[in-house]
Amino acid sequence: MRVIVFFDLPTETLDDKKEYRNFRKFLIRKGFLMIQESVYCKLALNSTVADSIVQAVKSNKPRAGIVQMLVITEKQYSRMEFVVGESNNTVVDSDDRMIIL
Predict the structure, then answer these.
(1) Of 23, 71, 15, 24, whose CA–CA distance to 48 is shortest?
(2) Using CA atoms, how far apart are residues 10 and 88, in angstroms rounded to an integer?
(3) What is the pLDDT of residue 84?
(4) 99 phi, psi to nearest 5 deg
(5) β-strand pairing of 39-43 with 66-72
(6) Residue 8 forms beta bridges with which residues?
(7) Distance (Å, rounded) from C-alpha 52 to C-alpha 48?
(8) Partner residues linked to 39 by β-bridges
(9) Do 23 and 57 contact (CB within 8 A), yes or no?
């Protein structure tokens, strides 16, 4: 499963910018990978893990702005189409149990 976080946070004041940085750093510390600017994704092995990820994001949400989450299956995620651009393959982002490098 994948947990995708979409966010649009205000960056008008110094406090807004600090909250933006803290939320983004939280996502990175928790193992989220940036798909696009303000769109982050994390792999979860099952729905229980996905639920705990969702709860962790909810407990660290910023005060203002929009934060949305979407939990999808690996099959749905693999059907994502690139209309312009291409996938970045420098990061191992797979649910395979054994990865041969």
Answers:
(1) 71
(2) 28
(3) 84
(4) -120, 125
(5) unpaired
(6) 66
(7) 6
(8) 6, 36
(9) no
C-alpha span between 61 and 45 (Å, rounded)? 23
The single residue listed with the structure tokens 């909810």 is 58
CA dist 7 and 26 (Å) reads 13
CB 33 within 8 A of CB 91: yes
Residue with tokens 């191992």: 92
Q: Please tell me the pTM assigned to this model.
A: 0.81
Q: Output the six-digit token pair for 89.
A: 């393959």
Which residue matches tokens 């939280």? 26
What pLDDT does residue 96 have?
A: 57
Contact 60, 29 (CB under 8 A): no
Query: What's the rounded Cα separation, in Å, for the pair 46 and 49?
Result: 6
Tens digit of pLDDT at every position of the chain (101 positions): 999 999 999 999 999 999 999 999 999 999 999 999 999 999 999 999 999 999 999 999 999 999 999 999 999 998 888 888 777 665 555 555 555 66
